[in-house]
Amino acid sequence: MRVHLVCILLIIGLVPLYVGMQVMKNRHWKMAYENRLNEMEEQGAGLADKVAQSGYLQQQFQQEVAAGLQAYAELISGRIVLLNQGLVVVKDTSGRQEGKTMISREPIYAMKGEKQIYYNDETGMAEVVMPIVVGAHAESDGQIIGVIILEGSLSDVIESQKAFQGSIAIVCSCMAMILLVIALVVAGGMTKSLRTLSGRIEEVTESYDGTQVIDSGSYYEVEQITDAFKRLMERVEATEKSRQEFVSNVSHELKTPLTAIKVLSDSLILEPDVPIEMYREFITDINGEIDREAKIVNDLLSLVKLDKTSGELHIEEININNLLETIMKRLKPLALKRGIEMVFESYRSVLAEVDEVKLSLVFSNLIENAIKYNRDGGKVMVSLNADHRFFYVKIEDTGIGIPEEEQALVFDRFYRVDKARSRETGGTGLGLSITKSAVQMHRGSIKVQSIPGVGSIFTVRIPLSFVMTVQEGGRR
User: How far apart are CA 416 and CA 22, in angstroms?
Assistant: First the structure.
């Protein structure tokens, strides 16, 4: 991450720097180039006036004009060429083309009154081609008697540009180094908290005893990560604690029936003449202890089966109204023993594609819990509703309720809110975990709302069409 941050910061800093330097380099060249051409243009206009006034092109040679042409040619490290009306070279300061006729585009256009200024990339020379005019102050009114060509070297401008580019390169290098240092410092500061957090998490992972404190760092995002990790470790600790309690409870629950069975069976063996009434009583007690142990084993087996994939579901279309009525009828005797009223309210007839066995397990667990953890003379209300995609089952009781801090844990395996009450009712802490697993296999959801001393509401949402839900899940 630190390398990525450094690269990003360097890109952010160097791109504008590079663009700015390129703009400066181009502006420097343009200014130097234009200044030189403007200077040559002004000098060319002055020389053209002198040539026109002196009659130099009419063979009235003056030493002063010739000297001036030669001097300026040397100054610009180039040459000056004068052409008469026939485009014959009258004067060439380099001496190469005197007496020759120069037929090219630039002199011809100049004879028409067009001034031309351009730069030859191949030779590195700037050229100014101007008409020589007499008889008027304006070129359009006067008579064009010839052409003057100034050809000057831009080597000094080019050298100046190279020097400027060198300076720019040095400045860019220095600024790049400064940017690198700044990027390293900033990236180091930004990742320091993460590195510290990573080290602390590693320490906690290797030897967590629940007492370690992890600093949150100075960045908001790091604080969020730290808080999330703390919550995770709290959940791990709570799960581990629940697991240990579960192992202890299950060991005790399994041992107690075995001990009772052992005592009862030994009593029958040691007594030579056991009355039939006592024999029947002892056998009944033994049978009850076996049922108690079987319930614990069956809950564990149910949880293992539900951990498998949804491919184990046997989907068929069933009437949810009938399913709930059947379950409530089966559990009504349990409610009548404690004077608990059971009410079923259906807003519409609901047909859904579900696994009837597993869904029966869901609603049986929830309604049975609503009865077991209710107060005597209380009430259990079951309601069914549906929309175009889901059906909703709400199980509401007037029982002991669940503390707010424990509502997020009730679906965890091995977790029991009221451990003493669960032991009395034969609970193993697996019922709600089994319920949630079965709901999730149907791609549904389950939520709980509860107020201690007032009651709890469990709401189950299941898709009406299991096949359509699977397809939508695949498209995601």
Answer: 72
371 class by beta-carbon count within 10 Å (0-12 exposed, 13-18 middle, 19+ buried):
buried
d(CA 252, CA 264): 18
The amino acid at residue 151 is E
Dihedral sign for Cα 351, 354, 355, 357, please: negative
Are residue 318 and residue 434 in the same domain, yes or no? yes
* Cβ count within 10 A of residue 94: 13
Question: If DSSP codes are grouped into helix, strand and coil, which group holds residue 65?
Answer: helix
Element (H, E) at 446: strand 445-451
Domain that residue 112 falls in: 2-160
Tens of pLDDT along 2-26?
Answer: 677 777 777 887 788 778 888 888 8
Query: What gap in Å lies between CA 169 and CA 153, rounded to an integer?
Result: 26
For the whole prediction, is pTM greater than 0.90? no
Where would I find the beta strands (DSSP E) of 38-192? 79-84, 89-92, 116-120, 125-134, 143-153
DSSP β-bridge partners for residue 396: 381, 457
Structural domain tally of the chain?
3
